[in-house]
Amino acid sequence: MSNKNTSDITPVGEVRPSQLLWTYGPGALIDMPSLSVVTLGIDRWDRDRCPPVTEARLLTAVKQRLGPQVESMRMPPFVKTKHTDVWSAEARIGVPVRPFPRWLRCVKCGMLAEYDSGLFKIKESRYRPENTRFVHESCRGSKGDKPAKDADAVPARFLMACRNGHLDDFPWRYYVHGGRSGCTGGLRFFESGASLQTENLWVKCDSCDAKRNMAQAFGKAGKENLPACRGRHPHLDKYDAICDEVPRGVLLGATNSWFPVTLSALAIPLSRDPIIQLVQDGWDNFVDVESALEVKAILKVLVKNAILPGIDQYTHEEVWSVIDAINKGEIGDDVTQEDIKGPEWEVFIEPNPPNDWPHFLSEVVDKPAHYKNEIENVLLLKRLREVNALIGFTRVEAPEESNAPGEQPPMAGLSNESPNWVPASQVHGEGVFIQFNEAVLKKWEAKPAVQAINASLFEGHRGWRNSRKLSSEEGYPGIRYVLLHTISHLLIRELALECGYNAASIRERIYGDTSNDNSQAGILIYTAAADSDGTLGGLVELGKPENLGRLLDQALNRAKVCSSDPLCSEHKPEKDRSLHAAACHACTFAAETSCEKGNRYLDRALVVPTLDNADAALFGND
After folding, report:
1. Domain residue spans of the chain
2. What predicted TM-score, i.e. pTM, was given to this entire model?
3. Cis peptide before 358 (omega within 30 of 0)
4. Higher-confidence residue: 1 or 333?
5. Positive or negative, the Cα torsion across 353, 355, 359, 361?
């Protein structure tokens, strides 16, 4: 992480590469102890230091969202430091950032000013970049009579953002003077009261004595007291010409200031022939190849940089024959598959799924003895790879789960021009796939009690979307999805208690699409963390019949009664326009990083009998 100007590079801190996708990507603010910076657009990143990530199906999905000009997905640049007391030249090259917000506040005298106003000076730490800070050299203390040399200056904690993805400094002068004013007096920020509520936080002009508390910058009052949005993108150094959205005050570090828009896919084998699978995995490297000689040159680069493990086992003539066959249509090429989950489902339900070391290794095991009626198949994924791509971000409002572009908040771009690459990450882990019996689920779906819950959830879905001015008929996943989603959450919570996994490192993928003849009915619970958590074999061990049956017994028994009952079990989504029924933090909700629907579309009554409904459960009514 560095503050990059025209010629000098100053290291100011460190973040993990995975955080540059989920938390601190382009346009996001990084709030360090003494400094706040914004990550600049990917057109400022050193592309050559970003290793490529290969996953053809995901790249196709990215192109559908951003355009055909996207050529590759790449990991954020790795900074390799040496064990010395001085930053090496190589270590100075990271992700470029810039101080933001521009306004700083002196912790001693409360002086408010922009960091380049001449009142503040940056102090770098040669040995500890994270200690880089601004200081107020001429500070004379809170009473103005005692010098406080080099008092710390910290970022002002208030900003302004809008739904169109714009972010700007808080308009301090406009706000304190109640509009545009010619007064150029110094500004001060002070507190009046024991608590730090906005009613006790004030900004004052030293020249005209105008002052106002910060409570009037939020809610309905904020719409009247804040100026129009200037359309600013601080990570791109540009302003949009027109913005008709009403800006709102946000706090530095608030979660609603940056929401990533990502796409993800599992690396699954598309062929049983290893060489065909390798070529399909690395198709981006071969797509424009026209001869065996070109393949020979490309293979040297791939082998030298270990980009496509296993390709060194084959000659360039063998690789070229596969490429030529794909181009002629003699070998099925699924790299243009639009559906992300569809091909995954097809591989998982095969009697003997193909393997693709080191990305995919599976084993079919027996079903738990007590659940042979409801469960059709159990697959242990001893090795899997998940690839995630960042395609943009939103502010103020989170992206909708439907992924329909017309229903999303406006997505801000990662660069000034249409990007030809996007940041991505790949993580290896393990998982357990459970396929449910299609005939049993169809019989369960026909129950009157299940249909009644389906109608109730759909009414809640319609009310929720109507309140957000979205099409009320779109996006409902169906009652089967709600059932599978709830079972997944109950198992995730049980797994976290049983094996000691960090609950946030366990994720889910729900396969519940019934829109075509090949209906899906399965869940994948897997670990995919950037560190070693999730690659230790614990989840696969718990997927074996004797362990999985015991975990299901415990999960279902624990779900019958919630500590928030009877309120939890009696909750009606149609009354409060919510997207869940008998579900809450005490019984069913999982970590936000684990759930693919943001803890929506859940209901325990579909899984086990509850205090309010004993007739709709899939389990426990025999």
Report:
1. 437-606
2. 0.81
3. yes
4. 1
5. positive
